[in-house]
């Protein structure tokens, strides 16, 4: 990798940190972003995401800041997440969180692509049609595909999609892939007004339909919408399974991200 490539990645990561983490906006109705000392957090209802978006801590103050956040969220009776990135300081932040009672979730990779440089001429495989999610029926199909793909309850997704579609539909794009009338894959894109970033989330395909290009088609579908709406970058937190597909499409890995969960 050339020094130019390294410099471009560092600059892009710095932009992401500044705009999407330190300068984060609430990600849904009824949520708020608070800046307390060197910590930026989102506080919401128990059905929404609660957690730490950004911090600028040093070794001397980290443990006190962690204790302060635990006290704040447990005082509200909320489970919350501290999402740390591979370049966050202090370097032992993850170990400090575990010592304080947090449980780490699987590590993923933050990848970003410039929309204008992506190949967007990817179509769904034969027998698959993509349905925009605009109402409760579409949300139900989307949640069904999500449950089948990931093996988890998707009530949180139903709540999130319906709340956003009702309150702020221009900031959310949902799509479900149908084989006939059967949902076999789904995904969403969250648009952040006033920033150059749109985030790709939740892409998952039912096991029997994997390996046929549906995931790539869902990425291209959302990327075309992002381009039409003037967003410059697409961001993904990718699993090890998704990362190779995204890199082949033109996404660049910048760092890792690991959620640490605290349950009161």
Detailed description of the structure:
There is one protein chain. The protein is an alpha+beta fold and 264 residues long. The chain has two domains: 107 residues, no CATH class; 142 residues, Aminopeptidase. Helices cover 34% and strands 30% of the residues. The protein is built from seven helices and twelve strands. It is globular and about 60 Å long. The model has no long low-confidence stretch (mean pLDDT 95). It comes from Streptomyces adustus. GO terms for molecular function: acyltransferase activity, transferring groups other than amino-acyl groups. Keywords: Transferase.
Strand proportion, as a percent range, falls in 25-35%
The total beta strand count reads 12
- Please give the radius of gyration in angstroms: 19 Å
Fold-level CATH name of the largest domain: Aminopeptidase
- The residue fraction in helices comes out at 25-40%
Order of helices and strands: HEEEHEHEEEHHEEEHEHE
Structural class determined from secondary elements: alpha+beta
Which stretches of 5+ consecutive residues score pLDDT under 50?
none
Under CATH at level 1, the class of the largest domain stands as Alpha Beta
Q: Count of helices?
A: 7
Let me know the CATH homologous superfamily of the largest domain: Gcn5-related N-acetyltransferase (GNAT)
Mean pLDDT: 95
């Amino acid at each position: 990798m050339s020094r130019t490539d390294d410099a471009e990645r560092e600059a892009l990561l710095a932009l992401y940190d500044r705009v999407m983490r330190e300068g984060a906006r609430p990600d849904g109705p009824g949520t708020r972003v608070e800046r307390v000392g060197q910590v930026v957090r989102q506080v919401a209802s128990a059905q929404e995401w609660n957690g730490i978006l950004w911090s600028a801590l040093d070794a001397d103050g980290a443990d006190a800041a962690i204790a302060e956040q635990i006290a704040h969220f447990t005082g509200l009776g909320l489970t919350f997440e501290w999402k740390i990135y591979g370049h966050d300081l202090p370097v032992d932040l993850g170990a400090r969180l575990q010592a304080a009672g947090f449980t780490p979730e699987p590590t993923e990779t933050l990848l970003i692509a410039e929309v204008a440089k992506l190949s967007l001429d990817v179509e769904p495989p034969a027998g698959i049609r993509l349905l925009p999610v605009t109402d409760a029926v579409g949300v139900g199909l989307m949640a069904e595909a999500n449950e089948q793909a990931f093996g988890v309850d998707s009530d949180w997704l139903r709540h999130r999609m319906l709340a956003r579609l009702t309150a702020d539909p221009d900031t959310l794009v949902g799509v479900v892939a149908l084989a006939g009338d059967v949902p076999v894959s789904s995904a969403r894109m969250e648009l952040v007004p006033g920033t150059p970033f749109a985030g790709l989330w939740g892409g998952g395909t039912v096991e029997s339909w994997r390996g046929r290009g549906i995931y790539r088609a869902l990425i291209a579908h959302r990327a075309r919408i992002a381009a039409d709406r003037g967003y410059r970058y697409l961001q993904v937190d990718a699993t090890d399974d998704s990362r190779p597909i995204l890199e082949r499409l033109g996404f660049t890995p910048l760092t890792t991200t690991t959620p640490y969960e605290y349950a009161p």
